[in-house]
Amino acid sequence: MTFLRQLLFIGIATVASMATTSKAAQSASAIDGYDLFPAQVSENGFVTAQERVAAEVGRDILAAGGNAVDAAVATGFALAVTHPQAGNLGGGGFMMVYLAEENRAVAIDFREMAPAGATRDMYLDQNGDADFATSQFSHLSAGVPGSVMGLVYALETYGTMSLREVIAPAILLAARGFEVTYAYEASLAEYRSGLLIDQSSVEYFLEGLDGEAYRVGDIVVQKDLARTLRDISREGAKGFYEGRVAELIVAEMERGGGLITLDDLATYRVIEREPVYGIYRGYEIVAMPPPSSGGIHIIQMLNILEGYEDLTALGHNSADYIHRLVEAMRRAYADRSQYLGDPDYYAVPTAALTDKAYAEELRSTINLRRANKSLDIRPGLDLPAESPQTTHYSVMDAEGNTVAVATTLNFSFGSGYSVDGAGFLLNNEMDDFSAKPGAPNGYGLIGGTANAIEAGKRPLSSMSPTIVLKGGKPFLVTGSRGGSTIITTVLQVILNVIEFDMNVEEASRAPRIHHQWLPDVVVLEPGVSNDTQAILRDRGFDIRVLGDDLQLGFLQGRIGRTQTIMYDDGYYYSSSDPRGSRGYSATY
Ligand code: DON
Question: Which residues pair with 27 in a beta bridge?
């Protein structure tokens, strides 16, 4: 299809989809009859993302005959334009793909990489303390970006359309502009000070050229970004990792004292990895392997919880249920602090951590009358070594191909610095390394040798794109944003569906809890009753409700934000998490 025909087709598909919305996107209550919060339902699949226009771009690709990978890549590039908080060209991520015809899953790792000049102690000040201003808000906080190569690799390997076709909508959105939504305006208000540190960021994202902060209804035109996208459209990944754009990145590094060189960019590689697999009550969990910690620990926690046969009977978010969840989380995050890192640099004991017998051992240490203290729980001992092994969006197409993508700059708007002339933000993903053993990173997470900084290494992540199979076929695809809370969020969405029979809308809405070993506090979203909280406090848990003065800034007022699709008995159901600014589930 030519470029123009493609655009025309997308226009037609958009109109066509509006016309069919009432049939395809009718409420799930039409089928279930009694759901309090019905999910959206369709017979054709969904693209669900944190930003509506980008979800619709992917949906239009599905409607035009593309598969789930084509749609995911189109949405990924569109998010880089319309959701610059986390959609990106200057960051990285993970993609989990289930190929229906081949009946197999692959995990694509396009996580950022530490530049060749990175060293273990690069963020320590003269007193030997971790200097977070440098690891979070400087050119030195940027890892070598992986997003562009990740999206291009996925498309070339598993897609059916050309790069030109799937990137065209993003180019158009950058060149002609996208309309500022309430969500974007609110985000700018929240992160304004972070963007003010860099004149190009101010111009690209905060106020354009007229010096007035963007407001709802304004049009954000990104000419430099459009040019970068055109280079990628024409030359593929080379259009980013070599030539003009690469030189602009290096010039930006030289201006701001960063480390990324032309050689770092030219040698960046996407890595295809085997997913980690688990079984929970007969459902198969297909999850992201290291350098994500998500897959291993979701499976580890499910293994621990599977031993409680009465979980459903305890009742959702009852004190007894939360007690078991917290103790499973405590043990998993303790192990995370010691055993998880880039598997190409550290022998992550994946099989041992996801072993059911190990989970049973951990479960036997849980006291069901009293809270354990995190300082009494050390990372599991004597695990055999093994040789190597945020924004989330989900896609399911009508053939059952399923894609889960998490992509991030780390913090919203990354480091706050943009590549001048190229139109995109730099990530601050280097802060996901452990700058110093025992020093918490931006998400309060602690690490050691396994996640220490090394040249070429990828920082440990919590991003958890996850697919659940039922009878060997995709049943649920989900993932979340939210740093350290991603793992516990995805765990609870899976449990809500499998254990408590919730539809995906209810599974997304239900109040969540979070515990991450250290700090030793149980965080609850509002909605867990006071008497439940009182029982847990009596048992020795330090219970905090979001909205109190938690001093846990990394939680950003909520626990995760999910994008979920479920397939069951001929129908696709979807929910874009209502927390914060709701995203959008697009179908046709
Ligand atoms: O990879 C990670 O674990 C983090 N950099 C993810 C950041 C994130 O989820 C931001 N969204 N709130």
Answer: 40
